[in-house]
Amino acid sequence: MKTGGTSLGAVCGLLVFLAILTPRATESLADLQARFDRETSGVRKAKLIQKLGDAQFEEARRAGKSGDYTTVGLMLEKYRDNVRAAIDTLKKQHPDAEKQSNGYRQLQMHVAKGIREVDDALLASPEGDKPPLHIVRRDLICLDDELLKMLFPRRPLEKRGATPPAEIHP
Question: Are 77 and 136 in contact (CB under 8 A)?
Fold first, then answer.
């Protein structure tokens, strides 16, 4: 049976496809946080940061637009705490990030995004609400550095045994 040039089977297929996507697409921040908190796999926890972090950033932006900078700070602090939890879980389960980088890579890229989000929040926040954001920014930079050092523990010069340019004397 055709309805307006489209078969009924195609319409049903599209509805089933949308029904499958809808629960995850509309997952609330609280649901994502609960999933993150329950997750025991370090890799899945790190990958879940992408969705959870984006939802937290969106909530922080929404709060910033309404002038609620306390919520902005709380959202970004929670993001930082979640990143720490994901790193700790990854380190326990896969201590060698250079050999087993899955999870570490995704987390590092998202932390870089998180630093940019904090920078944006700092630009928009009134002076009295900036100190906690400065702390979150500093912490995220330290976490990003930690992730990069775990992913790339040896610099190319160290591998070859060459002297770094700063130590070369004429």
Answer: yes
